[in-house]
């Protein structure tokens, strides 16, 4: 299966269609007591725990799915569940933060194979109305011995959220999209840069070497558009579109900012399904 099936889809299908409205109404009071971030974590964790009360966090009549491998509506998920592994699914949320109506999670999955993923949920009136995700297969530690999810998890510098988001947006547009690599030193503290990409070593020098090696092999990584930047304190997630090795690709890049500089980076890189293989028409992005 080319793409991991959304956790929201699986939780939804666990409950009968005809009882969905009642479930949400009965749990509305409990739902509103939690932050959007807490609701997102509860929903994803329920994939492993089986806590069906988490379904109360989803709007039963207004829910848009951007995982292109999942059809719209509850009935679209029935076929997926028939292929669930015998031991069930695993989901360990490592990081979670929120930005306005959006909640973001960074999760280790065992979901049709070990994967790492970012999920973005949009909330309206306390309920989830929209969902995006991006996944990469779990890989071995990178050249610096770092995994795809280890590293700092504590949210700090809440007063610097907008400043940090602006820094990341400028970096993505200036360096990754416009290719002005000579300006990279503006965004880092010397060579200090902790890297969790599976193929790249620590340091700005490690990034430069990886790009050079890819170029020698004829492998291109092109960023063409930044769709959204979301953040809370020292953590900022950038969602971009482009190509990798010539294939249409979705790039989710999570940055940790420290003292006004990019200090740490995690990512997932996912090939976008061609139109003929898509099960919904909502688009991979459309924030």
From TrEMBL:
InterPro entries in alphabetical order: NTF2-like_dom_sf, SnoaL-like
Bilayer-spanning residue ranges: none
Domain spans labelled SnoaL-like: 168-265
SUPFAM superfamilies in alphabetical order: NTF2-like
Pfam families membership: SnoaL_2
Descriptive protein name: SnoaL-like domain-containing protein
């Amino acid at each position: 299966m080319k793409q991991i099936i959304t956790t929201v889809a699986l939780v939804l299908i666990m409950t009968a269609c005809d009882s969905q409205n009642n479930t949400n109404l009965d749990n509305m009071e409990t739902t509103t007591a939690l932050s959007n971030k807490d609701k997102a974590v509860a929903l994803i964790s329920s994939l492993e725990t089986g806590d069906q009360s988490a379904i109360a966090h989803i709007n039963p009549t207004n829910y848009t799915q951007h995982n292109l491998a999942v059809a719209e509506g509850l009935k679209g998920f029935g076929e997926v569940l028939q292929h669930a592994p015998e031991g069930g699914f695993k989901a360990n949320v490592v990081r979670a933060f929120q930005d306005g109506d959006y909640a973001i999670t960074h999760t280790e999955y065992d979901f049709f194979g070990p994967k790492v993923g970012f999920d973005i949920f949009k909330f309206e009136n306390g309920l989830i109305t929209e969902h995006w995700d991006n996944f990469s297969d779990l890989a071995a530690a990178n050249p610096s011995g770092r995994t795809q999810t280890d590293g700092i998890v504590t949210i700090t510098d809440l007063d610097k959220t907008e400043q940090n988001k602006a820094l990341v947006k400028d970096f993505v547009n200036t360096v990754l999209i416009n290719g002005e690599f000579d300006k990279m030193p503006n965004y880092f503290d010397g060579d200090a840069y902790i890297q969790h990409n599976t193929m790249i070593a620590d340091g700005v020098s490690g990034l430069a070497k990886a790009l050079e090696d890819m170029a020698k092999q004829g492998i291109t990584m092109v960023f063409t558009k930044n769709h959204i930047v979301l953040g809370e304190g020292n953590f900022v997630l950038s969602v971009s579109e482009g190509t990798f090795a010539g294939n249409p690709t979705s790039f989710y890049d999570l940055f940790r900012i420290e003292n006004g500089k990019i200090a740490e980076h995690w990512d997932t890189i996912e090939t976008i399904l061609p139109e003929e293989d898509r099960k919904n028409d909502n688009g991979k992005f459309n924030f």
